[in-house]
Amino acid sequence: MKSRFTLLGAKGLKVPEAAELAGAALKIGLDLRESSYKGGEYFLHRYIDGAEISIEGNVRDEDGVLTESEFPEYSTLIYLNYSRSELEESLSDVREFDLLRSEAV
Questions:
Q1: Which pTM was predicted?
Q2: Domain assignment present for 48
């Protein structure tokens, strides 16, 4: 079975707002975390099967480069790692989220 990696984005939503919408769509709670590497506060949920969702800001590093420089108009990023199609489908129903990239490896 291939692993799936998906990136969604939200324009104009702050990280906590996107986490609330994603949590409601997936019927999960996301844990608030802190990481200077990820630009401060972010939200994370790991499923028992290894799938995970991380919601974080599209922030600039010390060199001024955005986390996802291809998508500067998206202030919030939603990463699905090792995901299942039903997770992606649930998040695609959230009108504030746009699919930016999806790949199977």
A1: 0.92
A2: yes
Domain extent, residue 40, equals 4-63+86-104
Q: In sequence order, what DSSP letters do the residues of the chain get, joined into one string? A: ---EEEEEEESS--HHHHHHHHHHHHT---EEEEETTTTEEEEEEE-TTS-EEEEEE--B-TTS-BTTTT-TT-SEEEEEES--HHHHHHHHT-TTEEEEEEEE-
**pLDDT tens per residue, the chain (105 residues)?**
567 899 999 999 999 999 999 999 999 999 999 988 888 899 999 999 999 999 999 999 889 999 999 999 999 999 999 888 888 899 989 999 999 999 887
Domain count for the chain, please give it.
1
Which single residue is written with the structure tokens 């590093």? 61
